[in-house]
Amino acid sequence: MIEVKGAGKQFGSISALNRLDWTIGEGEWWGIIGPNGSGKSTLMHLLSGVERVSSGMINIRGRNVADFSRKQLSRMMAVLQQEGIAPVHYPVREVLEMGRYPYLDWLGRDSKEDVDSLLEGIMDKLELHELAERPLDELSGGQRQRVALGQVMAQEPQILLLDEPTTFLDIRYQQQFMELVANWRRETGITVIAVLHDLNLAALYCDKLLVLRDGREVGMGTPEEMLTADRIRSVYEVEPVVVAHPASGVPQVLLSRQNL
Ligand SMILES: Nc1ncnc2c1ncn2[C@@H]1O[C@H](COP(=O)(O)OP(=O)(O)OP(=O)(O)O)[C@@H](O)[C@H]1O
């Protein structure tokens, strides 16, 4: 469904991404992992059409990403950044409605008949009813990230791009956020691509991982295949201990104190 063929991105003399070949199937949940500066955000910007490839190409459903209009892309794909949405002084309900922007005609009419029940359903799922009239800039970071997820749900995309979405969340909200995405995917079959620094969350939620280092792919496969001590050692230059999660068996990565 998404085909990345020999994709590369240069910024002047910096090669942020090199000759990446990658195929993302419909409904899959991929995690992109790798150290700081390895090209993860660059790849997300190429997928979302914010940046153009310097070489190679990216096709979505057989069509070059560069050939879609902004509006066409945003009907198909939603992007959620680590800081969610800017803390504007608009009530939560209106912020959710902004997710419908790609579907409005020039008179501001939505192509969907029953937007109200769509928004009600989202507020139910994300438990946003009690926040509906509160302005976004008065909410906590965790609450704002929930609203940001609601806004992209209102956008009804088929592809969700998450760029380090849990960075500013405590562990309860990290889990809640990932579970909400997992439920959404189960219900709609949406494709999810998430840049994650937290390898343990990546192992818990992603079907497959793409590992980048210095702008190059250094592995792709299941969390079990990718999160081996050897690979983590060579990619991140740390000495990890990898254990199986006692409940699910997925790999979990522990760090050790040095020189002990
Ligand atoms: N707009 C830009 N102009 C110049 N160089 C850039 C630009 N964007 C990214 N780079 C460079 O490309 C490389 C990859 O950066 P990128 O932000 O994609 O890495 P990342 O894996 O997302 O890093 P992090 O984990 O720190 O967010 C870095 O060397 C970065 O300095």
Automatic annotation (TrEMBL):
The UniProt entry, under SUPFAM superfamilies, shows: P-loop containing nucleoside triphosphate hydrolases
ABC transporter domain segment(s): 2-239
Task: List the transmembrane segments.
Answer: none
| Pfam families for the chain | ABC_tran
Keywords of the record = ATP-binding, Nucleotide-binding, Translocase, Transport
Under the GO molecular function aspect, what terms does this record hold? ATP binding
CDD domains listed in its UniProt record? ABC_Iron-Siderophores_B12_Hemin
- What domain of life is recorded for the organism? Bacteria
Q: Which PROSITE patterns does the entry mention?
A: ABC_TRANSPORTER_1, ABC_TRANSPORTER_2
- Keyword Kinase attributed: no
Q: Which PANTHER family does the entry link to?
A: HEMIN IMPORT ATP-BINDING PROTEIN HMUV
In its UniProt entry, what is this protein called?
Answer: ABC transporter ATP-binding protein
Which species? Paenibacillus dokdonensis
